[in-house]
């Protein structure tokens, strides 16, 4: 547990006095060799012990086509995104990982693979996974990751402390606030930035079975509620997975949402790293 948690007051404002901040996430994900997502687009789970070739092929689309389509949309709007990258992708497609950094997007450490979840580890194994992926991303992308998000947003009970000790400035394994907050561990501070599910393609399209247009409508309603019915500082992150919204059927929604946010002069568009640094600089 942290020694101290410092939450943002209602009077807090983002740069320029803006009250609402929006982050665009891209989940660039893969599974370890021989592993596949637990569930695929068919929606039913195979018998235990059988490799799900359908789910594996579906998820692999993200590395083949999805990441490039979403990157092109971000470049069209000149928006820098926060991209969750599994370490295994550095071995499978190092050129693209380096391109993400060259384009100025934030690289977020997302564990080795989507099947490698910190909550399953003891402390030594969790430290090793963190360091392994940190060094691999740093070497491949040419930048030092400052942010972490666990697969399925599920860190262990000590993940926040280990990240703070490793010099990370932020992580997304929290959902207990609608604004970021500072966690302190023996004098080391790290910002918890909620990974919200309000506008996230994976639960919207895969878990609940809605079409991509539903995510656009959910965004419009949420965005309007935040700007028109609230008076406190808020953040909203819009998440697209390369193997879900990276397809033509859904990518247009990410494009549309970016256009709507860019047209709103009262909103701060930022990366998770930029938000974390601003919070740290403005929270005593």
How would you sum up this structure, described in words?
- The chain has helices at residues 53-77, 87-92, 94-102, 123-141, 159-165, 201-207, 212-228, 248-262, 272-281, and strands at 4-7, 20-28, 82-85, 106-109, 147-148, 170-171, 181-185, 188-192, 199-200, 234-241, 267-270.
- The chain is of the alpha/beta class and 284 residues long.
- The chain has a single domain (4-11, 17-30, 53-281), classed as Glycoside hydrolase/deacetylase (TIM Barrel).
- Strands 1, 2, 3, 4, 5, 6, 7, 8, 9, 10 and 11 form an 11-stranded mixed beta sheet that branches.
- Strand 5, helix 5 and strand 6 (170-171) form a beta-alpha-beta unit.
- Helix 1 (53-77) runs parallel beside helix 8 and helix 7 packs parallel to helix 8.
Strand content: 15-25%
Number of domains: 1
* CATH-defined architecture: Alpha-Beta Barrel
- Helix/strand-derived class? alpha/beta
CATH class: Alpha Beta
* Percent in helix: 40-55%
CATH topology: TIM Barrel
Order of helices and strands: EEHEHHEHEHEEEEHHEHEH
**What is the CA-atom radius of gyration, in angstroms?**
18 Å
Tell me the span between the first and last alpha carbons: 20 Å
For the report, how would you describe the main beta sheet? 11 strands, mixed
For CATH, the homologous superfamily is named as Glycoside hydrolase/deacetylase
Pick out the low-confidence regions. Answer: none
Total of helices? 9
**Shape, please?**
globular
Counting DSSP E segments of at least 2 residues, the number of strands comes to: 11
Average pLDDT for all residues:
96
